[in-house]
Design brief:
76% helix
């Protein structure tokens, strides 16, 4: 699967400032919209915007939220139609996971990851009931609209230095990709039932962290990604607790917005030159936003942090172990020297 490269400070020296501003504006939208699931409003726009590199690309920045809204409404309708038939429902979700993973392995394009995340979250919420499913749908739609507005705004205020637009260079995976896709779809289906059993609907953003480790096509990358997700969660939880602790001294909206901006500025700077892959720091900022938004709305901050860390570690490592073991047993990859090359 294609992995977005580290931002270049020469091409985009204001990237860290833009990242902090994106998180701050997304968080500021929460009291305006008063959503049922604040963590989605806080974290989702960051994921859709922060992956952009080089100059502003309207096609990507504006198309991604629109695609997200369409997919969420389509998946909601699909889940509502199949919920009365449990076996058909489970089988259909496996087929969606399989098709998305096959797309990732065959083309290397990240669109399959978006399909997996939407299908995973909506299918789990569908098991909680129609009302909960529609709440998640509305939350995704609101967050996508926020991203649609914030994306052009932050680039207008803080444009990149380069005029060149970034072009993705996805790398397909060799071998029997149907076998690889089937392994990942089966593991993700089991993970779906586990998440449904142990997670509350308000914590559903944590499912994204546990599921993303499965998209990487090789055993080595699966383990690397698992460690990166856990590290990002720990970093994000630590920073979120610091933000919440400082917020207790002066509980006003401008204070928390300023702390969010400083957190994004710090993690954005690490994305440019930190010792770990840039995505670790991007995911950490998403964790900060989700935890702070959840803690200030309905969740206890200590409980939210502990729950996110434990569930992420358990889900990520269990899924990574299963996928890596089954990959090793089936030996479906065609050329290990190519597929295990660092991203």
């Amino acid at each position: 699967m294609y992995v977005t490269p580290r931002p270049d400070v020469q091409e985009d020296p204001l990237y860290a400032v833009r990242l902090g501003l994106t998180g701050m504006l997304a968080f500021a939208a929460i009291p305006i919209l008063n959503p049922a699931l604040p963590p989605i409003i806080a974290a989702l726009p960051l994921g859709l915007i922060a992956a952009q590199r080089k100059a502003f690309n309207p096609g990507k920045v504006l198309a991604a939220p629109v695609v997200m809204i369409v997919m969420v409404y389509a998946m909601t309708w699909f889940v509502e139609q199949l919920r009365p038939m449990p076996l058909v429902y489970v089988g259909s979700m496996w087929l969606i996971y399989f098709a998305a993973f096959r797309m990732i392995l065959k083309t290397g394009a990240p669109l399959g990851m978006l399909i997996i995340i939407v299908a995973l979250l909506m299918s789990i919420m569908g098991m909680h009931g129609t009302a909960t499913l529609e709440t998640m749908r509305d939350g995704f739609a609101q967050a996508s609209l926020v991203a649609f507005v914030i994306g052009p705004l932050v680039y207008l205020l803080l444009p990149a230095r380069t005029r060149e637009r970034h072009v993705d260079e996805p790398i397909p995976t060799d071998g029997r990709i149907e076998t690889g896709a089937a392994i990942r779809a089966t593991v993700l289906l089991g993970l779906s039932f586990w998440l449904y059993a142990v997670m509350q609907p308000s914590d559903m953003m944590m499912a994204m962290v546990a599921a993303m480790v499965l998209v990487f096509p090789t055993g080595r990358r699966v383990w690397d990604e698992a460690f990166q997700r856990v590290r990002a969660t720990l970093y994000g939880a630590a920073i979120a607790l610091i933000v919440l602790w400082l917020f207790t001294f002066s509980q006003h909206l401008p204070i928390v917005l300023g702390l969010i901006f400083l957190s994004g500025l710090f993690l954005g700077s690490k994305m440019l030159s930190g010792p770990h892959p840039s995505m670790v720091y991007q995911y950490a900022f998403s964790v900060v936003l989700a935890l702070v938004a959840g803690a200030l709305s309905t969740q206890d901050p200590a409980y939210a942090s502990f729950t996110r860390i434990v569930l992420t570690m358990a889900g990520a490592f269990t899924a990574a172990f299963c996928v890596a073991m089954l990959d090793s047993l089936t030996k479906w990859r065609g050329n290990p020297l190519v597929t295990t090359a660092p991203s």
